Amino acid sequence: MSKEMFNPGWKIELRHLRHFVAAAEHGSFRKAAAALGLSPSAISRCVADLEDQIGASLFHRHTWGLSQTHAGQRFLVRARKAIRTIGEGTQEVASAGRSEHGRIRIGIYSSIASGFLADLLSTYGQRHSKVEIALVDGNPAEHIAAIRQLTLDVAFITGAREWPDCEHEQLWSERVFAVLPRDHRLARNDILTWRDVAEEAFMVSETAPGQEIHDHLVRRLADLGQHPDIQVQQVSRDNLVPLVALGRGLTLVSEAMTVAHFPGVAYRPILGESLPFSAVWSRRNDNPAFRRLLSLAKATAAKQQGHQGGTGLPTA
Questions:
Q1: What domain count does the chain have?
Q2: Rounded mean pLDDT of the chain?
Q3: How far apart are CA 227 and CA 221, in angstroms?
Q4: Is the domain of 87 the same as that of 180?
Q5: Which of 119, 143, 231, 239 has the most Cβ atoms closer than 10 angstroms to its Cβ?
Q6: Is 316 a member of any domain?
């Protein structure tokens, strides 16, 4: 229809269009009614109502059936297009609501090589394969700022502290491991204590979570009366482990990192040390794909409840 024909007082509903198209395609109110599971009179009244609102006859009524008027032929093209557009839009919105499409930006502070986060992302990916997942490395302060600005949907970070203007929930814990050369004398032990490593040299990365590990080492070893030897290396945490194999010092990693195989190194757990991880998000975030991920994360954590414990590293 032309713009001149548009009347803002019209109350044309989707059923008007569907019934009109069915009548046009079948050439009969009776056949259209049979196809739609309605009575012929219901189809006839609906088409008549549509014609009254438009102000034009859409069909010539005959004893043998229907034929379209010139206005009806023109309107049929637009009615079909309108029905198709509405159908496509409905499917698109429904898919987004079911998280079949969409995008999630996730801030991470742990390895995704194994453990809770790896399993969570794997399960979510299998259930919602069309959702794009973007992972962003960073420290907690950067992630929280992005959460508040809604440029991140969720961040999985260490600790269980509350952040202003954010929701949070602790989901899982990981044991803390010392990384040492395979031929190191302590590699013969299955489990280490802080006293075992009190006089060892350590390395941390200048990137996250280097500062957090540095501060934790200082606190733990200070309790034993030791001033730790800690070197800050200008490499990522993934490149820090090969330096351990070269004998440059020890480092610490969370349990998820221990599945990564590096030649010449051994992983040994620190007795009684575990690292809690929490999800942090904005209460203003209404991204349906993210909400599905959060629900899955909570359900997964609930199944593992009772298997967490220990003393976690504090957040930066």
A1: 2
A2: 85
A3: 7
A4: no
A5: 143
A6: no
> 37 lies in a domain?
yes
3-state secondary structure of 217: helix
Which CATH number is 147's domain given? 3.40.190.290
CA atoms within 13 A on the CB side of 304: 18
- Give the whole-angstrom CA distance, residue 205 versus residue 216: 14
- In the chain, the N- to C-terminal Cα span, in Å, equals 63
Distance CA 280, CA 155 (A): 5
Same domain, 113 and 188: yes
Tokens found for residue 156: 């999985």
Place of tokens 């009969």: 28
**∠ Cα 142 146 148 (to 5°):** 120
Residue span of the structural domain in which 218 resides: 102-303
Query: pTM higher than 0.90, yes or no?
Result: no
Do residues 69 and 170 both lie within one domain?
A: no
Question: How far, in Å, are 43, 128, 196, 285 from residue 16 at the CA level?
Answer: 9, 36, 81, 37
139 with 286, same domain? yes
pLDDT above 90: percentage of residues in the chain: 52
Crossing angle (nearest 10°) for helices 40-54 and 14-26 = 110
* Mean pLDDT, residues 40-63: 92
3-state class (DSSP) for residue 307: coil
Whether 166 and 147 have beta carbons less than 8 Å apart is answered as: yes
- Cα 273 from chain centre: 29
- Give the residue from 51, 86, 85, 46 showing the smallest Cα distance to 68: 51
| Strand 102-108 with 131-137, pairing | parallel
**Whether residue 111 sits in one domain with residue 249:** yes
Name the pLDDT band for 68 (thresholds 50, 70, 90): very high
Whether residue 315 is predicted with pLDDT greater than 60 in this model: the reply is: no
Domain-embedded: residue 127: yes
User: Helices 288-303 & 70-97, crossing angle to 10 degrees?
Assistant: 30
**Amino acid identity for residue 114 in this structure:** S
- End-of-domain residue from the set 75, 97, 119: 97
